[in-house]
Design goal:
single chain; about 160 residues; alpha+beta; Immunoglobulin-like; 5-stranded antiparallel β-sheet; 8 strands; about 25% helix; elongated; membrane; transmembrane; transmembrane helix
Length: about 160
């Protein structure tokens, strides 16, 4: 009787491990779709300017060429002008539950807006004045976008010029 009890326990453990392996395998099937995300910087607009800092609204157009539906919890980026770093920013909906985030359907695209704060002390007076006066029109943004489906999370690097 003891041998049969041991075999039952071993079979149960093997079954649980096989089930866990199946879940991991099924979750990894979304990774290819999540890696297809495309990010484009479409707009940089001055929202308000003060003496020491200015706030700009950056609009990212996120495209989903895959067959899966996913959300974007994080876009971490650095904004440049002519190889001069203007600063870094982060679009984040990490504190919002998965069903409450903007869904990007298969073949769809969604504009995501984020506030970028430009500090005069970090870029210098000349660049700061050029930014708030609209003299700088060519931007480069580099960063990492995180995409998430029900089962998987993927991080992808991106670069976009405007």
């Amino acid at each position: 009787m003891a041998l049969q009890s041991r075999l039952t326990v071993y079979a149960a453990i093997a079954g649980v491990l096989a089930l866990m392996g199946g879940i991991v395998y099924y979750a990894s099937l979304d990774n290819v779709s999540l890696d297809q995300v495309e990010v484009e910087l479409t707009d940089v607009t001055l929202r308000e300017a003060g003496e020491d800092e200015a706030k700009f609204v950056l609009t990212f157009l996120v495209k989903n060429p895959s067959e899966k539906i996913y959300v974007v919890p994080v876009i971490a980026y650095e904004l440049y002008d002519d190889d001069v770093l203007l600063g870094s920013g982060k679009y984040s909906t990490e504190d919002v539950a998965l069903p409450g985030r903007a869904q990007i359907f298969a073949g769809g695209e969604v504009p995501l807006k984020n506030t970028f704060i430009l500090k005069k002390s970090e870029v210098g007076s000349e660049i700061y004045q050029s930014m708030i006066n609209g003299k700088i029109t060519d931007y480069v943004v580099e960063g990492i976008i995180t995409t998430q489906s029900t089962w998987s999370v993927a991080e992808n690097e991106f670069r976009s010029e405007k």
